[in-house]
Automatic annotation (TrEMBL):
Organism: Varibaculum cambriense
GO cellular component: plasma membrane
Keyword Cell division: no
Cited InterPro entries: Glu_permease_IIB, PTrfase_EIIB_Cys, PTS_Glucose_EIICBA, PTS_IIB_1
Protein name: PTS transporter subunit EIIB
Active site: C23 (phosphocysteine intermediate)
Length: 76
């Protein structure tokens, strides 16, 4: 399974994601249910850090954020 697929699963599946916005080194993901975001899964698939604020989950992935966001959007 590729990293984008794993990230989607770690964020609770494509049905839990409202919006994906890439930044320089992170993905800002608006989710319907933040409790579905699994930090262990996200870390296992390469996240350097995870910050949850309300319905937004920031996943630090490094300089590949734009590429991952594009791949994740295609899979949704």
């Amino acid at each position: 399974m590729e990293q984008a697929e794993q990230l989607l699963l770690g964020l609770g599946g494509s049905g839990n994601i409202c919006e994906i916005e890439p930044c320089t080194t992170c993905l800002r993901v608006a989710v319907k249910d933040p409790l579905k975001a699994d930090e262990e899964v996200l870390t296992a698939c390469g996240a350097f850090g995870i910050v949850k604020i309300g319905h937004t989950v920031q996943v630090v992935v490094g300089p590949v954020a734009e590429e991952l966001a594009a791949s994740m959007e295609k899979l949704r």
